User: Fold this.
Amino acid sequence: MADPTELAPTDDAPAVRLAQEIVQEIVIEGGGDAGVGALAIAPDHTPRAATASPRPAPLRAAAPDEAALREIEQFLYRQSELLDRKLWHDYIELFADDGIYWMPVAPEQTEWEGSPSIFAEDRSMMQVRMGRVSHPTAWSQAPMWATNHVIGNVVIESGSPDGWVVRSRFHMMELRRDTVRHFGGTYRHALVRERGLLKIRLQRVDLFNAQAPYDYVLQVWV
Amino acid sequence: MNLQELVEPDRVHKRVYTDQSIFDREMTQIFERVWVYCGHDSQVPQVGDYHAVTIGRQPMVMIRGKDRQIHVLHNRCPHRGVQLCGNQRGNVGSALVCSYHAWSFHLDGRLRSVPLPRGYDGTRMTADNPDCSVKRAARVDAYRGFVFASLSATGPSLLEFLGEAKVAFDDMCDRSPVGEVEVVPVCHRVIQHSNWKFFMENQLDALHPSVTHQSTGAAAGRIEQQIKEATGAAPLYYHYLSAFASKFEQWDAVQTINFPRGHGILKAYMGLRPQDPDTRAHEALLVQAYGAEQTEAYLSRGIHHVLVYPFLSVQSPLQQLRCLRPIGPGKTLSEIWHFRLKGAPEAIYRRALWYYNLVNSPATMVNADDLENWTKGQWGLESDGGDWVSFHRNFGDDTEDRGVSEAVMRNQFRAWSQYMAETGNAGDASAAHVRR
Assistant:
């Protein structure tokens, strides 16, 4: 009887054959482009165009007017606090009499009038929006609803004693019922001084997800 | 499941809004058989331009061929299934090339080449095997520049399917002195957390506006009045909003018209034919192009919007439309488009743009409350608080076109039942229930 602990003699021929088969024989060249891959198949495959986006305006002199910058920052913070606290009347009062709140669809757009927009509102239309969300039968305002804005990256694009053009970034979280949504983008404020106070002549809001699907809508200015 | 037990002449079971298996059947029986809107001809002007579109559950692309024809293809490489077009819109150049193994296809979907083709020698994958080409929509057709596709090789033609609802596109295009519109290249997409039928029913429901949209109508009416008092006249676009806040009796006087196949019209109520200089300049161009009599016939069509069941609402007098892409029983994507009247004054575009921006944009002051209703409606129907949805208002007289009548929903469900029946050709029998 064979001792079961004794190892059977091995046939090492397959391992030898495999070792012979996997000896490297070819080194392919890499780094080709034209005539390689999909370009070999369709040489006129559309090149990847750079996304059309306007170059940001150059910043003002390296040393900004510190006092003006601080005042403008405080103004922007106050504006976001008025939104988050739903003080719509005070919010609208931040706009000049001919002030405009504009959220275009795409960064290339330059005119608030005559363009497809998400918001394009003068003070009268802002009053309509305020009146709507304050009305007792604004059904969509019944659910728990809150926003939280954070403003940063404040830079002065241009300025004079009478006004400034200011760019900043925002992040906004919105709670509606049990769901949080997240929005972000760029503000561009054209500010003027009227009777000593800063007022908004044009606030442009470029939502970075402006053309993504909206899960529900935007009820109030962002 | 017996669908006939779920749809009665005066009420329907909640499951038709909430049940996944019914939704799946809607996809195969309705959305993947009827003519579905793909887009406008002007969305893909250049050879190789494409636009992705979902038909039922099928990711498709609408693409402009070398022959200038528009083709509608499944967005799927026949080799290993990878999608061929990776963006919502773009241009593929002269051929579709798969990003995985570089199978390439002509713009009409026919196989163009594969790398190292000898590897297929002796296999069933021969160049003349249709399995080697991109699958095409069974039928593609267009009416006045609006492109539709059907995934069914049989069934009514596009014009038969549209029936009288084709007036949607006539009413839009006839307002151009050259009879054509071109797309504004922006598509707002808004997700509705509700069954697609909520939207379709709501579009012809004239009882809801003064309830749902009271807040906006009242607020706009107040400011409109202030402007009138200060300057003598308020811009027309305030009335786009203030018109919503009208008495029930006025809404009952606004008429709806029901057509076979579930289509319908909500007749005009906003006074969209003012007599200001812009309108007169526009009408003068139309008279030049079509003559006075024909122009009058075109402009006296009193349409607010036209419903092409089961997926399209066309607001022809303001050149915009909303198209539904159902995602699940409780989730629907709506796509919102605007068009320009070729050859019409810029002021006419801008006037319609106000409606697009105020009512149809993602910051809409109107649909905010509709979406809220439909979300809560979906939740209600998913509950065990009741089994039936009531469509009893004015039941028994579906020939009367009262604005608030629920004849609209009954008409839609007649079409739905026929589509959902095994071999139903919806619309033909339901015509008997409808005036004209």
Q: What stands out?
A: The CA atoms of residues 205 and 294 of chain B lie 31 Å apart. Chain B touches chain A through 55 residues (CB under 8 Å).
